[in-house]
Amino acid sequence: MIRSIRAFACLKLCAGFFLVLAVSPRPEAQDEPSRLRLNVVLVQLNVAVTDNKGNYVSGLRPEDFVIKEDNIPERIATFEEGDESRRELILTSPPAKPDEAPSAAKAPEPEVAAPGPMHTLAGVAIPGLAGANVFILFDTSNYMYRSFVFAQDAITDFVRSMPDVNRIAFYSYSRDLSRAAALTPDRFRVVSGVRSTVAGDDAALYNSLLLTVKDAAPLRGRKAIVVFSNGPDNASSIPPEDVAELAESTGTMIYIVSTREASSEPISSAAFERMSKATGGKAYFASNWRQEKDAFSSINADLTHLYTLSYYPRANPNRGWRSIKVQLAGKNLEKYHLRTRDGYSLQQQAEIAPESDSASTWGLDSQ
């Protein structure tokens, strides 16, 4: 219990933290699961805006966006474009009945009501929040054996091409998850982790992806998981729907680069597309090294051009799944296309074996 209280207190002290995370006490029996419960205080959205040719649209302002949660207009609290520092908008007194966890402090809201235009949006830059936290999850199962070295090269090029403001973690998986390099701005450490991988056993992608989402959950700002897969999942006990729901609820984007043609693995391909689309990411099917390179380049560009917005949810009796709809205001902007997550679960639970609990891996329940 003491370890759990420390973890909870540590997370609440994080400035601008948008999720209250409570980790239950560790069970003594090894076969009993630990549980992860999330109560949303501040909702963060990563929004890609493109024109009809697929080019990214830059220079938009907070007043250009309209957000509705379960058809309830919301007010933007913070705004960020690309790798610039996040701006916190002008705030006034908190609403009479904010929709938040009982133990959370009342959160102020922006001065101008949504969905109307916000005319006083001068903001204060929050230092240290630029860039993204990117987790690379590499398939080292026996599916990858023949193209293993080429896959390492593609990931290494991707790591080196990422902007310096981004922090990167490198994980690999076969039947089990291996955290080769913790989240760091040090590219040499990440590349060393990539080069140290070896081909292994069966593929438990969804189990490993769920653990990676759990690692990303406490982080602020933009966060994404980039999966490099060479085959279907044949060893997981977790369905892809559970992974997608937890990723949506924690604001974690999932990008998947598969080396198999979509037609050759229709079941896996459909699952990859559903997971990535639900979280605001993308799925790529690259059958050769050129297509792999193009896929990683596209992911890099996407992370660089995203708009990141957040809001405090208004009072809402719905305690389950909440839908989110983001639109652009004004006729001149209606021609653009938006991509973001569809919603979140107010109280999301995930069961994971205690020995694989990421909280202990990253020191969230220690000290």
Protein architecture, described:
It is built from eight helices and 19 strands. With 367 residues, it is of the alpha+beta class. Among the domains are: 54 residues, no CATH class; 173 residues, Rossmann fold. Strands 8-7-6-15-3-17 form a six-stranded antiparallel beta sheet, with helices on one face. A six-stranded mixed beta sheet has the order 11-10-9-12-13-14, with helices on both faces. The N terminus and C terminus are likely disordered.
Q: Supply the CATH superfamily name of the domain at 132-304.
A: von Willebrand factor, type A domain
CATH topology (level 3) name of the domain at 132-304 = Rossmann fold
Q: Give me the side-by-side strand order of the main sheet.
A: 8-7-6-15-3-17
* Count of alpha/pi helices: 8
Percent range for β-strand residues: 25-35%
Average pLDDT taken over every residue: 77
In a nutshell, what does this entry contain?
The chain has 8 helices and 19 strands.
Give the secondary structure arrangement, pairings included.
Elements (H helix, E strand, L loop, with lengths): L1 H11 L6 E5 L10 E7 L2 E8 L14 E5 L2 E2 L2 E6 L4 E4 L33 E4 L5 E8 L8 H14 L5 E7 L3 E8 L2 H9 L9 H12 L5 E8 L10 H11 L2 E6 L7 H14 L3 E3 L3 H17 L1 E5 L9 E8 L8 E3 L3 E3 L1 E6 L5 H4 L6
Parallel strand pairs: 9-10, 9-12, 12-13, 13-14
Antiparallel strand pairs: 1-2, 2-19, 3-15, 3-17, 4-5, 4-16, 6-7, 6-15, 7-8, 10-11, 16-18
Protein traits:
367 residues; alpha+beta; Rossmann fold; six-stranded mixed β-sheet; 8 helices; 19 strands; globular; disordered N terminus
